[in-house]
Every structure is written in structure tokens, then in C-alpha cells.
Amino acid sequence: MPPTISRPSIVWFRDDLRLSDQPALQAARESGAPLICLYILDEDSPGLRALGGASRWWLHHSLAALSADLEKAGARLDILSGAAAPIIGSLAKASNASAIYWTRRYGAAEIAVDRDIKASLTDEGLAVKSFNGQLLHEPWDVQTKTGEFFKVFTPFWRAAQALGAPSGPLPKPGKLNSAEWPTIGPKRVALDKLGLLPTKPDWAAGLRKTWSPGEKGAQARLATFLDMHAKNYASLRDRPDMSGTSKLSPHLRFGEISPRQVWHATRHAQASGHVPAQDADKFLAEIGWREFAYHLLFHFPDLQTRNFQKKFDAFPWRDLDATEVAAWQKGKTGYPIVDAGMRELWQTGTMHNRVRMIAASFLVKDLLGDWRLGEQWYWDTLCDACPANNTASWQWVAGSGADAAPYFRIFNPTLQAQKFDPEGKYVRTYLPELAKLPNTWIHEPWTAPDAALKSAGIVLGQTYPKPMVDHGRARDRALAALATTKADMA
């Protein structure tokens, strides 16, 4: 047992809502001090981005799960709302705290908040101890030979792997010693009073049906993936009509599971012969892309708002009208694979990764919409809306990011659908109005004979929209816009 210390320590939970492999919590417990386990819904500190609706729903349930887990361990979760710096300063003084522990964050605004709090508390004599609980490797530890940050994924991932396997994950801590809340401390807030859940209307039925937020749900999701789906990951990960992905992204986003836990569980499954090496490597490379996104966010703080490649500052994005935006957002573009993806997103708070790219390409290339418009919609509707991954992925599709797909790589939504949803199972799941259309025309209903449409109960332009753009012409328009940009730069 750790030695007993009377002055409490504060454990500040942020995007690390779990007990196992929780270095900050483990270190605080080992100090022997009674613990104040804290979460602050901070929507007031300068520069912090408010969570989208789906993420707020997830956060509510994740906090509820964390609170229950802490209670089982002998502690409690104290929830507050407001700017973090004055809250923590007040709490530290009122509780006579000796130290504060947290998991590091990598966005510029978050770093600024943490730096100011650290300076203030250190001046007051508190120990401030931060830990890496979000990444396999810190962004500053993965460098080129000249000491710069990587701008291309493959050499980044090669260099990250050369640092060696991450250390083994920490177990859940034993019994926790909880400190009393100070009588003159800042006012706590009941979880239900944070207003994180939708009410009028309650649009979260599909989210409740799809997800089990919390550490227990994350571990169950990982176990199911490694047991049932990982062995075919490399070949099935791009098939939205099959269960070939891990669906761990929202659990990782809120830190209900750590990348170290995912890494070691995957390698263990590989070593046992249950998951082939090529599938394990491919899956962990996706964890690597998440690492790369945080690497970019740390080194390029304006990633969420500014083109990584400055040449795209001159790109002639169209100012889409409200009708065009709504058609894309609501899944009424007339391209079934795009529409199925956007409706999956609205119903479940997620979208298959291959379809995310197809839908994103349609916005920025077929419609010439600014990638920031799409990034904002995904931010609001994705449960896994990650400040690094969401933006890096949108810039990748738009061609403006690091290691981006070249802008002239324009997804043909029909060909993509025919390749990755060959029997239309995915499309039929989210577009029931097309369910009776034969496979021949399921991905391009506008080419179906009148008799086939009538037999399927489809009236184009009424029960299902006609394509809002012709893809061939839209492709030509996008390439012309790219050529104009290059001419302006010459």
C-alpha cells in the first residue's frame, strides 16, 4: 500500500475517461494522498472548441460510466462547469491540495490552458505532474533526422515504430482513497445538469442502439474485434457492407481505452496465432494514422482552420447555397453510396471510413465545397469527432493537408460503391426507398429502366432524388479549378 498523505491530490480527467492504463491516476494513487477526481466541462476558456452534439451525447454517458467505476473503486467523480483555470485555482486553495495530475493534451488552446494552470499552481507550491495517456509516442519524440516534424505518414510511422513498442499498459488501480470535497470549494454540478443530452427533439435513439460508451464498452468492443473481425481486417476494412472494422474510434476519442492497450492486445492476438500478421499490422497502422494526426496538430496548431499546404489558400471553393449543403448533409445527393453514408452518420453517430472519404470527396470535389464546411458537419454529428483525426482526414481528402491525396484524385462515387458494396447491402440498409431495386442499378438508379423503377416503387425526383450534379462534369470542373489555382501561383 502507498504511504498515507493527508493533503489531497487532484486528478483532472479530460480525454482519458478510464481507470486502467491511466498513468495520471496511478501516480496520484501511489503518492498516498486522498484523491479528488475531477472533470470540468470547459466551454469558456479562450480558443477551446465546443463539442458537437453527438460528442456531447457520448460524453454524458462516458462520464456516467467513469463515475460508476470510480465509485466501485472507493472514489467519486466531481463534475464542474466553466473555465478550468479559476476553478482549479479555487479548488486547490480550498482543499489545501498538494499536487495535481493530468494526461497531456496537444491542441494549442488546450496547451495554453494547461501551461497557465501549471505556472499558477507551481507558484502556489503545488506539484503539477502530467503524463502521456493518449498516444503511443509523444509528438516531439518522433522526428526526422534533421530534428523536424514529419509531413508524410509512411516515414512518420516507420520512425515511430523504430522507437520500439510502447510500454505495457497499467492495470486498474486498487482501492482508491477519496478526499472530502471542501466546504468552501467551487460548486459541483450534477451530470444531468450539464445539458449534454438532446431533449427537444431527442435524436439520439440510433446512438443508444449502436453504442455502449465507457471503459467496459471499449474493452468489449476491442475483444469482439480481435476475436471475430481482425483476422480479415486487411481485406475487409474497406467494405461497408461487412463488419470488418473495430469501431473503437469514439472510445479512443474519449480515452475510454488507450492506444497502448489496443497495441498490446493486438500483438498478443497476433502472437497467439489468432490474427495474421498482415491484418495486425494494417490495423495498427490505422492507430498510427491517429498518432500522425496528433503529431500534425501539435506541430501545426491551426490545422483545424487553415490549409496545411498554403497553395490551397488560393483555391476557388464555391460558396454553396443552402439547398446544396442540405442535400449533402441529409443524404439527398442522388448518389446512393454518399446518401447512405450521410444517413448512417445522422442515425448512428458514425460512418464507415471508406464511405467517409467518398462523402467528403463528393463535397469538396463534385460540389467544390470548402473542406471546413464538411469538417464542421462531421464534428457536430460524429461520436468520434477527434480534434486531430477529423481535421487531418478532411485535409487529406481535400488535397490541402500533409501527405494528402492529390486533389486530382477524385472518387467516382458509383465506381467506389460497385467495388466496396457490390450487392448494395450497405446502401439498402440506410436507403430503404431503394431496397427493391436490383443490384444492376442499385448504385446508379438514374440509369434504371422505367419498368425497373416502377417495380421497385421508385419515382426519381420524388421518392429518391436525381443526381444533384453529373459526376463527369463535376470532375472536369474540379480539375479546372485546380488548374486555375496553379496558374495563379505561377
Describe the protein:
By secondary structure, this protein is mainly α. The chain folds into three domains: 1-133, HUPs (Rossmann fold, 3-Layer(aba) Sandwich), CATH 3.40.50; 135-167 and 215-299, Serine Threonine Protein Phosphatase 5, Tetratricopeptide repeat; 310-489, DNA Cyclobutane Dipyrimidine Photolyase, subunit A, domain 3. 46% of the residues lie in helices and 6% in strands. It is built from 20 helices and five strands. It has helices spanning 23-30, 53-72, 84-95, 108-123, 153-162, 205-210, 215-229, 233-236, 249-253, 259-271, 277-299, 322-329, 336-348, 353-366, 371-381, 389-398, 413-420, 425-430, 450-455, 471-489, and strands at residues 9-13, 35-41, 77-81, 99-103, 127-131. Strands 3-2-1-4-5 form a five-stranded parallel beta sheet, with helices on both faces. Helix 1 links the parallel strand 1 (9-13) and strand 2. The longest helix is centred in the middle third of the chain and has 23 residues, at 277-299. The radius of gyration is 24 Å and the shape is globular. The model has no long low-confidence stretch (mean pLDDT 96).
